[in-house]
Amino acid sequence: MKILLTGSKGQVGSALVPALAPLGELCAFDRQGLDLLDLNSIKTVIQREKPAVIVNAAAYTAVDRAERGKEPAFAVNVRAVNELALQAKSLDALLIHFSTDYVFNGEKHTPYIESDAPAPLSVYGHSKLKGERAIAASGCRHFIFRTSWVYGPSGRNFVHAILDAAKSKPELRVVNDQRGAPTSSGAIAGAVAQVLSSPDLSNKPGGIYHLSAAGETTWHGFATAILQEKGLKTPVIAIRSDEYPAAARRPKNSLLDNAKILESFDVALEGWWEGLRAVMRTMH
Ligand SMILES: NC(=O)c1ccc[n+]([C@@H]2O[C@H](COP(=O)([O-])OP(=O)(O)OC[C@H]3O[C@@H](n4cnc5c(N)ncnc54)[C@H](OP(=O)(O)O)[C@@H]3O)[C@@H](O)[C@H]2O)c1
């Protein structure tokens, strides 16, 4: 099985490289190798490589910066995704793509299921939703994994931000009114590899699947766990979202219900704290 991976240096992309390599021939492209802003390159590279599976781990993920103007987010998260989907369709290849809890407005009180109505609050959320819809409209065979609160051993993420802040500040103030499940890039990559290894993959229904760590917390709870795992005693003060000014609005409830992927592929991610502990063991 030939697999073409985009965004190979991102959090999820870099975890996918070792996870996908054992499954076949992996052609991994970072932004330098394949810039998704160049739609012609997408076509040329895919038609040259003729992969059986395209895994798109590239995305515009600067949630607050996206509020300054939708063009950069839409170029990568919609137009490039549309082109990837059209190319997948032309080769009869399977497209694997990632989306986000930010397609929802967070007003539901229980975890979101795949068929819940999206209503994004942010430009980023809108762009990811339009990307999902472009894939569905292309008619290519696809799996879209919506995940949440992604972190990993490297890259810009909440874990690093909290550890850095704890070095320089006497106390941290962290939002306590957004619920979600922090999900490690390694757990996502392992789940994708498990899905692709399913013996009866071709009989499985394509579409959207929720894929996040088990359990729930808040950003405040997550920050507290990060410091605890590191043995740091910096106090973490709980604040409301409106006390932490950010350009983009975020859902109050980011929880995703993972029952569908468990039933379809027997994939169940570990609890968020266990996942955090495993990642922090690999960090220096
Ligand atoms: N991060 C989260 O909390 C989160 C939550 C839910 C869902 N997701 C989704 O999960 C997926 C993976 O996210 P992630 O956390 O791994 O994001 P990430 O760490 O920001 O990685 C995204 C990668 O895409 C690359 N990229 C951006 N623009 C590109 C372009 N024009 N051409 C080629 N590559 C480009 C980036 O390269 P540069 O580094 O050079 O910009 C980066 O390597 C995305 O679909 C994201 O929407 C993420």
Characterize the structure shown.
This protein is an alpha/beta fold. The protein has one domain: Rossmann fold. Helices cover 39% and strands 17% of the residues. It is built from nine helices and twelve strands. The strands form four sheets. Strands 2-1-3-4-5-10 form a six-stranded parallel β-sheet, sandwiched between helices. Strands 6-9 form a two-stranded parallel ribbon. A two-stranded parallel sheet has the order 7-12. Strand 3 (53-56), helix 3 and strand 4 form a beta-alpha-beta unit. Helix 1 (11-20) packs across helix 6 (185-196), helix 2 (39-49) packs parallel to helix 3 (71-91) and helix 7 (219-230) packs parallel to helix 9 (272-281). 48% of the residues are buried. The model has no long low-confidence stretch (mean pLDDT 97). Bound molecules: NADP nicotinamide-adenine-dinucleotide phosphate. Residues 7, 9-13, 31, 35-37, 57-61, 76, 98, 100, 128, 147-150, 155 line the site of NADP nicotinamide-adenine-dinucleotide phosphate (NAP). NADP nicotinamide-adenine-dinucleotide phosphate is lined by residues 7, 9-13, 31, 35-37, 57-61, 76, 98, 100, 128, 147-150, 155.
